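Practice problem: predict the structure.
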Amino acid sequence: MGLARFIVDRWSALNYKRAFADPAYKQPSREVFPGAMRTWVPKEDRRRLASYTLFAAYAHNQAWEIASIQDHTDASARREFGDPAMLVASITSHMLGRKQTITVPGAEDAEPSDGTTATPEAQHAADVQEKLRAWAKAEHFSLRLQQSERKAVREGDTIYLLGLDAAKGRPRLSVIDPGFYFPDLPDNAGDSADYPDRIHFAWQVDGDSLTGTKDKLRRLTFELGPIGTRTISATAGPRPERVPAYDMDGITPLMTGGDVYDPGTETISRQYPWNDSPSTITCYLTDAEWDLDDIKGDQDVHTLDYRYATFLTRDDGEVLDHLDLQLDFIPAVHVPNSIPEDGHWGESSLSTLLQLFDELQGTDTDSSQASATTGSPILGIVNPGDKGSSRRGEQKKIRVQPGMVVEMAQGGNIFAVDTSPQLAELRNKTAELQDRLSLNARMPAVALGSIDPTKAPSGFAIDLSYGPMEPLLDSMHLARDDKYSLLFKMVQRLYKAGQHPDWPGPVVDVQLVWGTYKPTDKSAVLEQVSTGVKSGVMSLETGVRLLVEAGYPIDDAGEEIARIQSRQFEAARALADATGSTKAVGDFLGIDINPDPPPPTPVLPPATNPADQQNQGAQGSGGNE
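Answer:
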């Protein structure tokens, strides 16, 4: 037997498990991890798949089953109280925050507070932001996010898959288990910045002896390649497939509408609506099945022989044999839990803590057994002489139960074995291990909810206790920010690929803003904002943003600012005195102020001479007489 191999990789923290890494080859046990050791699984992926199963077992209180298979012993008495699952839930919830917001930079400028007209770019940003939020609501993105991130924290990786649904008129979002994900990474893949040009999603479908179906391997493949001529579905042959489409002469191959052939470079280019210049690349989709009997021993998921494949057919009749999706990107996003250090894969938040969990489970098991002997103590009964024995030298065993009365002979004695000190020591050991777990996981007791609220220190001390966790969450956010920005870019591109009429304009950058995870004193934040805005050291926009982060029910910051300003009549009067502009005051209050028109000039009778008035009066009286 040769020297044992020494392997350092993303999963080497699990090498202490004999079931995960045998001493010679560091490969998982086929008995414990049969799914990871299937013949079609590449050797470089076996440790990764086995680690996913191991992490899931710990999170579901099933580590005892792995120990039982590994050691061929009965481990059913092992106690597991959910510590790994609790840690995964805590890290996931704190990393996501209370609320996640889809934000397009520049959208806040769509409604200027100074009364000016918004730029077309700001209006487009606000329009895309509103539509993406509507898409996220229709696709239950918040639920998908929770589902996906729980996998990432627990197993180290997660995958989103997008596809355009013509019937629903929007891109659909799916979360794929990382155990089905097989990227075709180059041998020298040391930089995770470049996404592979070919990926597979593969899983085994068990056969049914009643129907006579065999075990099969199903594989979905997305790959980028040069744009080719047009193909059509052919179902009349022995199996469905795609064949080239020709002109009426049967010789000239046809091209997809809009494609341009360059005879100089012998390439076909296509203008995608989200690019400034034509591209010669497209994405092909293949969905096929293989009988396991047809897969040779030297083949894996990357090198399957298409001659033995059965291509599946889509609902619209298109055969999925290198189907041109008319996209220049693979509509999948791989999200690692941590910043990849050795290529493509992330690291589980449980990876370096499994030995601590084993110690906790062992201590909990010992405590359970010790509490049984403490609650039902071991009793010794001393009989005088040989009385009470059935025969000389033979001890009589009595089963002791709660409420049981033992009648003693004269001179007899009874004593109990006290195991409570050992139980107390085991409990102290459990508390020590929990403190070590909190330290190594960088999750303080206040974040795990294990602190007594009646003994909580001041708010400032609680805020300081989050210090070790902040770099952890910053690193996790850094590993995800670009991934979610790419996901929302793909959503915009898929809408454009489907020629949706409500999605004109360019593709814009999008951010997923994480919510706050710290407990907030709302009254203190409200007082801080009120004082800051009133004294002029804080803008109203900043104050409303702080209120949103504190958890106040403000759906739209811009609308909230407009409502606040519409009631600030004293500030409006000061603005009128400072500017003398009625328009500025109307814009500030959010109303249309039309000043009253000046009153019309009264029309008076023409003025006359007083002497003439007297003469006219005298003449009038004489005539009357």
